[in-house]
Specification:
This protein is of the alpha+beta class and about 240 residues long. It has helices spanning about 25-30, 35-40, 45-70, 135, 140-145, 150-170, and strands at about 10-15, 75-80, 85-90, 95-105, 105-110, 115-120, 185, 190-195, 205-210, 215-225, 230-235. It has one domain (about 10-235): 4'-phosphopantetheinyl transferase domain (Ribosomal Protein L22, Chain A, Alpha-Beta Complex). Strands 4-5-1-11 form a 4-stranded mixed β-sheet, with helices on one face. It has a 3-stranded antiparallel β-sheet with strand order 6-10-9, with helices on one face. A two-stranded antiparallel ribbon has the order 2-3. Helix 1 crosses helix 3 (about 45-70). The longest helix is centred in the first third of the chain and has 22 residues, at about 45-70. It starts with 8 loop residues before the first strand and ends with a strand. Bound molecules: coenzyme A.
Length: about 240
């Protein structure tokens, strides 16, 4: 049961439009990378992808630095077993959880000091593959989506997608087998909830749909346990 007196788990968010960032920011971002990270960014073919990757890493290092009173350059980001970047600092044994996401020219980032966090951003006008709902969603989610009209289904698709993707990214486990056995339910205006998940504890998760980057859908998922979630639009 949720305790009324337990402090909320706070997630701090930040974002940038990569079309607007200047050379100073990109130079800082590059200078803060470790050699292996730099090589990974350089393997990206498109300039826009390299820019998004750099800005994402800049944002999470800024969030980490602010949260822990450290220097952004002191942080390393190394991919975990399924590719999730995990922060490491020479003198911080248990770093905050971070994650970032990018689409088009928007990059969003999240930090949570004491619980696993995932974040996803999408543009709601991106054509949704609504003919393949069962590939991404559980039967209960498919039933919810198919009851909507065409416009509602398009928006509902991306709302569910971002929430589920944020949850997958918080778990850091990859997507194998997790999509059609996981159900997220809406009870607007209450936040969405995880109703079913084969190998997880639904009650431990909290979600938020956040109006962060104007015109884009951003969702965060945090493994809060029995605590509530509070969202802060941080300044990175
Ligand atoms: C790779 C994946 C993490 C997300 O990919 P995506 O949506 O294309 O990209 P996003 O911009 O949201 O996130 C990419 C960032 O997530 C991070 N990331 C990479 N692997 C990750 C993982 N396993 N877990 C968490 N975060 C991860 C990295 O920071 C990455 O940035 P980078 O590309 O600059 O290194 C993964 O969840 C995936 O392949 N999803 C498939 C999509 C799908 O079927 N979703 C179903 C939703 S219903």
């Amino acid at each position: 049961m949720t305790s009324k007196f337990a402090p909320a788990v706070i997630v701090e968010l930040a974002w940038r439009d990569t079309a607007q960032v200047d050379a100073v920011l990109l130079g800082e971002a590059r200078a803060w990378l470790r050699a292996d990270e730099s090589a990974r960014v350089d393997r990206l073919v498109r300039d826009a992808d390299r820019r998004n990757a750099l800005v994402g890493r800049w944002l999470v290092r800024r969030l980490l630095a602010r949260a822990t009173a450290t220097a952004p350059a002191d942080w390393a980001l190394a991919p975990g077993p399924h590719g999730r970047p995990e922060p490491a600092h020479p003198s911080i044994a248990v770093p905050p959880s971070i994650n970032f996401s990018h689409t088009r020219t928007v990059v969003v980032a999240a930090l949570c000091r004491d619980a696993a966090v995932g974040i996803d951003v999408e543009h709601p006008a991106r054509v949704a593959p609504v003919e393949r709902l069962a590939r991404f969603f559980s039967p209960a989610e498919v039933a919810w989506l198919t009851a909507l009209d065409v416009a509602g289904r398009q928006l509902g698709f991306w709302r569910l997608w971002t929430l589920k993707e944020a949850w997958l990214k918080a778990r850091g486990s990859g997507i194998t087998g997790a999509l059609d056995s996981t159900t997220i339910g809406f009870a607007d205006p209450a936040p969405p909830r995880l109703l079913a998940a084969r190998d997880d504890e639904p009650a431990a998760w909290r979600f938020a749909e956040v109006d962060l980057a104007p015109g884009f859908l951003t969702a965060v998922a945090v493994r809060c346990g029995s605590r509530e979630l509070a969202v802060e639009r941080g300044v990175a």
